[in-house]
Amino acid sequence: MPSLSAQKLIRKLRQRKYRWQEKLFVAEGPKLVQDLMDSGLKPLHLWSTNNFPKSEIIDLDLLSKLSHLSSPNEVIAVFPFPTFTAAKSQKLLILDEVNDPGNLGTLLRTADWFGYQKVICTKGTADVYNSKTVQSTMGSLARLDIDYLSFEEIKEQYESHRFLIADMQGEDYQNLKADDFTNFALVMGSESHGPREYWKELGLYITIPKPSESTIDSLNVAVAGALIMQHFS
């Protein structure tokens, strides 16, 4: 059963400032928790309502009170932030003001699938350790090297990369291939606003052409990101 201090900690970790202050996050559900452990993360605390390996027992009523989810899922754990560091990467994923936690988590999971080990978030992007983001990543958090950087820091640190900026206006992404670039960075922006103006000075705008007469104005950013990441993988 969680001690009172552990219960207090879990409640505090609902807030971003405490997650980053303590360098801890909460993960829930047997599959997600097992995926994180299989990827090398060791939980600081681990409780379950059943016989999940190496866990302490917690009753369902307390789990419901401590859970960060609307529907508690058997297992709750507190993990330290991952310290995975990718090797010098030729391909990067940059997420610029992607502020929906679910989309962010899906993009991180997709990056992991297609081998984009290095992910950079601008400081207007949602927190990767938000509970909804964590659930959406399905363990990919432990296998990605994720930084939060400003535009100026990105420009300075990755000046040798060719920036490919996803936008409604631009060159058909299928006209390009990964072999065209020694190093490249794919920039995915906010669904509502698209990439910010300052990216124009860095690279090439690319787009996914619409092959229909539909009046829909855009693709979901996670779907668009998956299509483009697959193409350049």
How many H/I helical runs?
A: 8
Question: What is the correct CATH architecture of the largest domain?
Answer: 3-Layer(aba) Sandwich
| Helix-strand string | HHEHEEHEEHEHEHEEEH
Content of β-strand: 15-25%
Find the CATH topology of the largest domain. Alpha/beta knot
Structural class determined from secondary elements? alpha/beta
Q: Which percent range fits the helix content?
A: 25-40%
Widest sheet: strand ordering: 7-6-5-9-8-10
- Kindly report how far apart the N and C termini lie: 46 Å
Low-confidence stretches: none
Number of strands: 10
Gyration radius, rounded: 19 Å
Instruction: Characterize the main sheet.
Output: 6 strands, parallel
The tally of structural domains comes to 2
Provide the residue-averaged pLDDT. 91
The top level CATH class name of the largest domain: Alpha Beta
CATH H-level superfamily of the largest domain? SPOUT methyltransferase, trefoil knot domain
